[in-house]
Amino acid sequence: MTASADGPRTHVVVLPGGGYARLAPHEGEPVAEWLRGLGLEASVLEYPVRTRHPGPFHAVRRHIGELRAHGVERIGVVGFSAGGHLAGHAAVSGLVDAAVLGYPVVSMQLPTHRGSREQLIGLRAWPWARRALSIDRLVTRGAPPMFIWHTAADEPVPVEHSYLLGRALAAHDVPHALHVYPRGRHGLGLVDGIDGEEEAGIARNWTRDCAEWLRELGWID
Length: 221
Known about the structure:
The chain has 9 helices and 6 strands, in the order E-H-E-H-E-H-E-H-H-H-E-H-E-H-H. A 6-stranded parallel beta sheet has the order 2-1-3-4-5-6, with helices on both faces. The protein has one domain (10-217): Rossmann fold. Helix content is 36%, strand content 15%.
């Protein structure tokens, strides 16, 4: 980690997706490299998978606690799909100062994404447990700024998840940006150089849009 010469010490934690069953490589280190290219410190957290809640969340909390103990003043989190759910949980729990969520699993009350729900709480979880782990139900006015992006064509995790979160953030006056791009399959990551890049259309611009948001937030020059 390095300290900024004229600003708070900042670090961004990347949480890959994978349905809480695995960690998708293209949503990990390549994303951290992109963030470093913007002038940010970044690391990938290999949180535990195939384990029930609160295992993954505790891993994130420990990692962020270690960063704070090493003098990091401002911490962000970037998560995709199930990693977006975990990042959102960290955000609404007050652990971080900003969050970027890509095609996130938001609600455990919706029938999708069954894979993430099965790994985290089980398909037969009680309604109260499903509600307690639905990010849109946990938003308060104290939630940090969020950048959310999704595609309207996403089938495994429909865009309804991001709409639910966007409505919750708006209802609580939480600063946020919500981008819904018309095309692109689930799991695009950085989009660049992956199968389906041509079909993603303007979804490839999410990194540009996110960088502009981070700049407006004052996190990058």
